[in-house]
Design goal:
By secondary structure, the chain is α/β, with parallel strands linked by helices. It is built from 16 helices and eight strands. It has helices at 11-22, 34-43, 65-69, 84-91, 116-123, 138-142, 156-166, 179-201, 206-226, 231-234, 237-248, 253-262, 267-274, 279-293, 299-309, 314-322, and strands at residues 3-7, 26-30, 60-62, 74-77, 100-103, 128-133, 147-152, 171-176. The chain has an eight-stranded mixed sheet with strand order 3-2-1-4-5-6-7-8, sandwiched between helices. The longest helix is centred in the middle third of the chain and has 23 residues, at 179-201. The radius of gyration is 20 Å and the shape is globular. 50% of the residues are buried.
Length: 335
């Protein structure tokens, strides 16, 4: 048995907490919101974000960061990416040398272009920071549907510790040393999923969705490899796997927001309707900035940015993608 602190009581943090408690670990959930903690204590269920998923007895709930962090074998940082830095600052005074922090949010910090693990390492340099990601909607993990993810870390020892802690008969965990590739795949797929949702909102079909997924992973892979990631990662669970589930699923908040925009809503109207943080919106600008920094062409992500921030119509964005200059699908193949 291990002691695990879950920092963030949203849908993903709650689902992972249940999985860990079912594995026999001692779990403490932290939230900055007293009402949220009170709800979890009284109902043992997140009524707003994960209704119907009952939490096991024996879990603890707190608004006190010191209680959630001190003495834990692992910390799971599960707040939305836009709150990662501020939460890491609050955690820092209580984290000890080598304490493992598992980052499970997906995003790139707009101002610095840092990944989530880089942000946490910046704020808490004493920690052993790693990542857990893959095609894994909280709604399905919460009810125990078979799910497969990847634990990424700088050392095999840390990755296998995370694997051993989380893995069970319905939650399979692989390991990987390519933390950068995992994080880029997990972050940038949210931007592609916005585009996929926009296509759904316009009433386009399977042909369009297939094109967006395959050309989307091509864009993400070009950038990730240019930044030093491994192509195998982008062809795996945290690349194409995560992209498929986020572009297709009814649970995907990024797809839903894009669909609402395709139906005519503005970005602000769509995010209010979704009622959860739409990570792709926050990663879109950073993705475009990285593309320019590394001289990588990313036409889908460029058009998503124009729709989000330049008031370009979704119809016009799709049309411009279709009439770009002719080219080969793979420029490295010889006739």
């Amino acid at each position: 048995m291990r002691k695990v602190g879950i920092i963030g009581a949203g849908s993903w943090g709650t689902a992972l907490a249940k999985n860990l408690a079912n594995n026999g670990h001692q779990v403490t959930i932290w939230s900055i919101m007293e009402d949220e903690i009170k709800m979890l204590q009284e109902h043992r269920e997140h009524l707003d974000k994960l209704p119907g998923v009952k939490l096991p007895e024996g879990m603890e709930f707190t608004c006190d960061m010191e209680t959630a962090v001190v003495g834990q074998d692992l910390l799971v940082l599960a707040v939305p990416s836009i709150f990662t830095r501020s939460t890491a600052k609050a955690m820092a005074p209580y984290v000890t040398e080598g304490q493992v922090i598992v980052c499970v949010a997906k995003g790139i910090e707009d101002e610095t272009l840092m990944t989530i693990t880089e942000v946490v390492e910046d704020e808490i340099p004493v920690a052993d920071v790693c990542v857990l990601c893959g095609p894994s909607h909280a709604e399905e993990v919460g009810v125990g549907l078979p799910t497969t993810v990847v634990a990424g870390a700088k050392t095999r020892k840390t990755a296998e510790l995370v694997q051993d802690t989380f893995m069970n008969e319905t939650f399979r965990v692989y390991t990987s040393p390519d933390v950068l590739g995992m994080e880029l795949g997990g972050s940038l797929k949210n931007v592609i999923a916005l585009a996929a949702g926009m296509a759904d909102g316009l009433g386009y079909g399977d042909n369009t969705k297939a094109a967006l997924i395959t050309r989307g992973i091509s864009e993400v892979s070009r950038l990730a490899v240019a930044m030093g990631a491994k192509p195998e990662t982008l062809n795996g669970l945290t690349g194409i796997g995560d992209l498929i589930v986020t572009c297709q699923s009814k649970h995907s908040r990024n797809r839903k927001a894009g669909m609402l925009m395709g139906q005519g809503m503005t970005m602000d109207e769509a995010t209010k309707e979704v009622k959860m943080v739409v990570e792709g919106i926050y990663s879109a600008k950073a993705a475009l900035a990285l593309a320019k920094k590394y001289y990588v062409t990313m036409p889908i992500i460029e058009q998503v940015n124009l729709v989000l921030f330049e008031n370009k119509s979704v119809q016009e964005a799709v049309a411009d993608l279709m009439v770009r200059d002719k080219r080969a699908e793979h420029t490295n193949l010889n006739w």
